[in-house]
Design brief:
CATH architecture of one domain: 3-Layer(bba) Sandwich
Oligomer: single chain
Distance between the termini: 23 Å
CATH class of one domain: Alpha Beta
InterPro entries: FAD/NAD-bd_sf (IPR036188)
Radius of gyration: 21 Å
Pfam family, one: NAD_binding_8
Number of helices: 18
Shape: globular
Structural class: alpha/beta
Protein name: Dehydrogenase
Largest sheet: 7 strands, mixed
């Protein structure tokens, strides 16, 4: 695989052209290496692809849709991706969470405006998220790197950590209204795990704080624009991408100085085979996948008829009811049981990006949190959640397309069992993934690094796992 003499010294290979693989490739190319990316699918992007389904002109994102951490990515912000066609667009309201009484909590970029809409919970929201939003840029920089390396902003990270270490169930006690508790609970559910566990509040706190700083934008023309922009930047830097090429062994790669794998740990272990040190192989094989997602893409005439006005103007809507109902649903999923009322993340990207619609026909996508590898059909339970907060939704649906956990894995091998977050967010894996190591990107095979969402900082179209891994590879080559 890796020859250290001749022209191979200047070459690098990346396996996988998702956002992390592409970010890694750009970093390596800018570091002076000749980079080739091999992608098994016929299209680049991994979790950031877009396309039409059953209705011409109605554009859906295949997976990742709203990009709070993409817009806030410390690495992507250093790249002039706008020159390569990436444009962020924001809805009027970033996030809404309807409750059964008919109202909704609404998240705006402004902490003050958000707090004002939460009534009695406004002061508590300001106290909690005012300081976190003010520190969001430093916090994002701190948490999007391996924590064992030592924080760049220790005091700010410590202040965040005092809250993030707590279960979400404890943080939720700060809020008294159904809308305030629900708004926080829906964000906390992005953990894809039990809200009562330590660090259960961490993901929700981070994405709300980042949302107050960067908003919850979408990519104009679909999430595929992120991959297209990174690919164009890579090509300009001298790199190249080959699609439709599935790599099963290091022996299939051309001679090169370094290899980065945008793969799930188990897939990396299979590809590396006996080259992998036994202790690393055991860690990769033991790495826990997260719960699954069941996706429903709806073409809706006139949009969803939400009872709450805020939901009609929100790019993202969380459906789960009260905080307690969300916590119950997430606990059921964690223990492998399909909840009767699953938590749903609904994307209405067309509100920020009208070009995704065809006249009055609009794309509405929803994910339900389901058990890992769930083999059932969650469509009925998901539509029931829509009807709960938007009666009459079914009558407006012109076309529907369901994507099961198995379908997700067939479309992207990294989505094992429908896990779209790169691994279970257990307390250990939140802080030390995919294994306990000062440099979690090193595989133990000389010149080979892991750069998927199974490495810090985890899921999201932020490219930081790829960038961090590529910097580790460059350091090993003496190019840092």
């Amino acid at each position: 695989m890796t020859e250290r003499a001749g022209p191979a010294r200047e070459r690098a290979v990346v396996v996988g052209a998702g956002p992390n693989g592409l970010a890694a490739a750009v970093t390596l190319a800018r570091g002076g290496l000749q980079v080739t990316v091999f992608e098994a699918a016929d299209e680049i992007g991994g979790g950031v692809r877009s396309g039409e389904l059953s209705v011409p002109g109605v554009l859906f994102d295949h997976c990742s849709s709203t990009h709070v951490m993409g817009a806030g990515s410390p690495y992507l912000r250093t790249l002039d991706l706008a020159s390569y066609g990436l444009e962020w667009l924001w809805p009027e309201i970033d996030l809404a969470h309807p409750v059964d009484s008919g109202g909704a909590g609404a998240l705006y970029r402004s902490v003050a405006r958000t707090a004002e809409g939460l009534g009695a919970d406004g002061p508590a929201w300001r106290r909690l998220f005012g300081p976190l939003a003010a520190d969001a840029e430093a916090l994002t920089d701190a948490v999007m790197r391996p924590l064992l390396k030592g924080p760049r902003h220790p005091l700010r990270l410590a202040r965040f950590g005092l809250h993030a270490l707590q279960p979400a169930t404890l943080v939720a006690r700060r809020f008294r209204t159904e809308a305030g508790r629900g708004l926080f609970g829906g964000a906390a559910a992005h953990l894809f795990g039990p809200l009562h566990q330590p660090l259960g509040a961490s993901v929700g706190l981070m994405i709300i704080a980042a949302g107050h700083r960067y908003g919850w934008p979408v990519a104009k023309g679909g999430s595929g624009a992120i991959a297209t922009a990174l690919a164009a930047l890579l090509t300009e830097a001298g790199g190249r991408i080959e699609t439709g090429v599935r790599i099963r062994s290091l022996d299939e790669l051309p001679p090169c100085a370094t290899v980065l794998l945008d793969l799930a740990p188990a897939a990396a272990a299979t590809l590396l085979g006996d080259r992998l040190p036994p202790r690393v192989r055991r860690a990769y094989r033991r790495y826990r996948s997260g719960p699954g997602a069941f996706k429903l893409d709806l073409t809706v005439e006139g949009g969803v008829p939400w009872r709450a006005e805020a939901c009609r103007r929100a790019g993202t809507v969380h459906l789960g009811g009260s905080f307690e109902q969300i916590a119950h649903a997430e606990r059921e999923v964690h223990f492998g049981r399909m909840p009767a009322r699953p938590f749903l993340l609904v994307s209405q990207q067309y509100l920020a990006d009208p070009g995704r619609s065809a006249g009055d026909l609009h794309p509405v996508s929803a994910y339900a949190h389901v058990p890992h590898g769930y083999t059932g059909d969650a469509t009925a339970a998901m539509l029931a959640q829509f009807e709960r907060f938007a009666p009459g939704t079914r009558e407006r649906i012109i076309a529907a397309s369901a994507t099961s956990t198995a379908d997700l894995e067939r479309g992207n091998a990294n989505f094992v069992g429908g896990d779209i977050i790169g691994g279970a967010n257990t307390p250990r894996q939140l802080t030390m993934r995919p294994r306990i190591a000062l440099d979690p990107y090193r595989t133990g095979v000389p010149g080979v690094f892991l750069c998927s969402a199974a490495t810090p900082p985890g899921a999201g179209a932020h490219g930081m796992s790829g960038h961090n891994a590529a910097r580790s590879a460059l350091r090993a080559l003496g190019r840092s």
